Amino acid sequence: MRNLRCDVLVIGSGPAGLAAAYQARECGARDVLVIERNAELGGILPQCIHNGFGVRVFQSDLTGPEYVARWARMAAEAGVRTLTRTMVLAIESSPDGARRRVIATSGADGMLAIEPTALVLAMGCRERPRGALAIPGLRPAGVYTAGTAQRLVNIEGYMPGERHVILGSGDIGMIMARRLTLEGARVEAMCEILPYVSGLRRNLVQCVMDYDIPLHLSTTVIDVAGRERVESVTIAQVDAAWRPIAGTERVLPCDTLLLSVGLIPENELSRAAGVMIDPVTGGPVVDQAGATSVPGVYAAGNVVHVYDLVDDVTASALRAGRSAAGCACCTLLAESCELPVTAGENVHHVVPQRVRLPLVPEEGATLELRVRQPVEKAVRVRLSADGDVLLNKRLRYVRPSEMIGLALQPEWNERLTSAGGLQVDVEEA
Asked: What Cα–Cα distance (Å) separates residue 109 from each residue in 2, 4, 269?
């Protein structure tokens, strides 16, 4: 087994991993290593050939491959090392928890034992498969996740089918509805079990409405027919408890069913490292710098919670990379205290789940939250500490698909020192 040491080890080379590695190197970490299990860097972005990436980070409207190519070039120029086709098998900790050893395997290098001073988890997220949905019916060919179909079309050059039904209205599903239509296929319907779309409104307009894709809300697939290949699916409207309503069934002939039913943070390795997982987000419990419950282990991007935009993924990765470099270089400020953050009225979750004091201007600490239910009229987002209101933010509307950010102000340090915690509520204005 080959033994390696480094200041900062980053697992995953998507937009979060590359940005974290670049920032760690820029902030003084001498030896930064990125591990990627695929043959190419970039995570999911090489197959996202549509534009809309990097508007805030680079002030340019880039495609996914263009965006990740910029970060790969910046990381390489900064001196970041990368290992592709390398799979992490385990994360081991010393008995006192002060050191970690990452066991990985590579076709080129065999078994590797890597001992980093700081570790950044940037494994991203995965799609929810059919097995998690309990859709009745047979198990024929022609059932794909939307991301798999995206790779087939954009990377491999294959069409998954000719007539498609899409279950779910996640962003990848809506983008694929447009992509398949442009390639000459038919999208018979997009069905969403919720009474509203689960992806961004801009994708609803640009990918579904602009291409006349039939959209059925409060509707789901209740049967898949076909023995060798999908021949049709049966859809039905659902009630408030998501139960099919008798008499609303419709049979839609098709040869392909795409699933766009949500993303799950990829955290098997996080659990192996002993990191505390938030049961609501499915990602690590972190502070504003991306520090997890395990000293020296940081998390960034979609492994923490699923973001709307790659620019926000990058922002979280820059914070985690800066903190990992501080850990490796022993320049982190001593902690004074931490405040738990609670999700209040109509708030599904808040990240970070704890805020470390004092707030430092350079960190740019921001609370990121999603609401439980959409409110299509003016609302007030209230941040309070033990009932003392710190911030009231008025918004024209809130939607679960659109993340809300609340900037934490360093001038609150004195008020927060004696507080027991923070709470975020969303109410009608």
From this structure: 8, 11, 21
Q: Report the pLDDT value the prediction gives residue 136, as an integer from 0 to 100.
A: 83
Structure tokens at 351: 């990240």
Give tens-digit pLDDT for 214-255.
Answer: 999 999 999 999 999 999 999 999 999 999 999 999 999 999
How does residue 131 score in pLDDT terms, banded at 50, 70 and 90?
Answer: confident
Domain of 96, in residue numbers: 1-127+264-332
- Separation between Cα atoms, residue 120 and residue 353, nearest integer Å: 18
Q: Give this prediction's pTM.
A: 0.94
Rounded to an integer, what distance in angstroms lies between the CA atom of residue 221 and that of residue 166?
9
Contact 324, 346 (CB under 8 A): no
Q: Indicate the residue among 307, 332, 357 that finishes a domain.
A: 332
Supply the DSSP symbol for 332.
P
Of 214, 243, 261, the residue at which a domain comes to its end is 261
User: Backbone phi, then psi, for 14, in 5-degree steps?
Assistant: -75, -170
142 and 257 co-located in one domain: yes
In angstroms, rounded to a whole number, what is the distance separating the alpha carbons of residues 373 and 412?
30
Mean pLDDT over residues 311-315, rounded? 96
